[in-house]
Amino acid sequence: MRTFSFLASTLLLCTTLSACSIYRVNVQQGNVVSQKELAQIHKGMDKAEVSAVLGAPLLQDPWSSDEWVYSYSDKPAYGSTTVRNVILHFSRDGSLQSISGDVKALAGEKG
Question: Where do the Outer membrane protein assembly factor BamE domain residues begin and end (predicted)?
Fold first, then answer.
């Protein structure tokens, strides 16, 4: 009986202590820019049209409004952080000149 009581209390202690781990939250921040959305963006679009498709940029240079940065980071509870940036460059007249960054629009993608 004494062995059973020892095993039961040890099992209870181990079960209780295993629940004491720290809860970690997945953290997602920024603008999620999908391939489907990027496929809708092309050179020559004005800022209002780009904003209608992608939303407001996360970062914008306060001295020059010619560069918009859409940044997204994902930090899972356990694992490494993923960061993606899409940078749009506009001309002085407000038309889109180039798209650069980590996510590229695929020519034949349908979505």
Answer: 30-98
Strand, coil or helix: 61? coil
H helical segments located in the chain: 2-18, 35-39, 47-54
By CB neighbour count within 10 A (0-12 exposed, 13-18 middle, 19+ buried), where does 57 fall? Answer: buried
Domain ranges of the chain: 26-101
Model pTM score: 0.68
Q: How far apart are CA 41 and CA 75, in angstroms?
A: 27
CATH number assigned to the domain covering 26-101: 3.30.1450
Instruction: Give residue-wise pLDDT tens across range 5-20.
Output: 888 888 887 777 766 6
- β-strands 67-75, 27-30: how paired? antiparallel
**Concatenated DSSP letters for 90-101?**
E-TTSBEEEEEE
**CA-wise closest residue to 88 among 14, 17, 33:** 33
Determine the straight-line distance between the first and last CA of the chain, rounded to whole angstroms: 66
